[in-house]
Design brief:
There is one protein chain. By secondary structure, the chain is mostly helical. It has 2 domains: 1-50; 53-117. Helix content is 73%, strand content 7%. The protein has helices spanning 2-6, 11-31, 34-49, 59-71, 79-95, 98-110; strands at 53-56, 112-115. The chain has a two-stranded antiparallel sheet with strand order 1-2. α4 (59-71) crosses α5 (79-95) and α4 (59-71) packs across α6. The protein is flat and about 50 Å long. The N and C termini lie close together (11 Å). The model is unreliable at 1-7 (pLDDT under 50).
Length: 117
């Protein structure tokens, strides 16, 4: 199956797409657009490795991602600060009422995640 999916893009198209992604990555870095940069990195991974399997997203991970982004300062965090922020988000999830968690469960059913072999 891996070869079948990889052959969906010809080497020429793959090369062009990677070049465009690299150019856009440089722009995103200069403009400090981290969301766009993340999307570009994910797109590059998809092209280089190929997406083999999709699954529904995890509600906790969606909550944690949103929590991290909403509480992240505009500067680069140290590893210790990231760990503390993750602990705070985990505690918020534990204290979240079931009605609020349900919103993330519904959202998780609509979002697909790509797994790689």
């Amino acid at each position: 199956m891996k070869e079948e999916i990889q052959s969906m893009l010809s080497p020429k198209v793959k090369k062009i797409l990677l070049k465009v992604i690299d150019e856009e990555t440089e722009k995103a870095i200069k403009e400090n657009d981290m969301n766009y940069l993340t999307d570009l990195q994910n797109a590059k991974k998809l092209i280089l490795r190929g997406a083999w399997k999709t699954r529904k997203a995890n509600p906790y991970l969606l909550f944690t991602q949103q929590c991290m982004l909403s509480n992240k300062p505009q500067r680069k965090l140290t590893l210790k600060e990231v760990q503390e922020l993750m602990k705070e988000c985990a505690e918020k999830w534990r204290q979240l009422p079931e009605s609020e968690k349900k919103k993330y469960k519904v959202l998780a059913g609509e979002v697909m995640v790509y797994d790689y072999l």
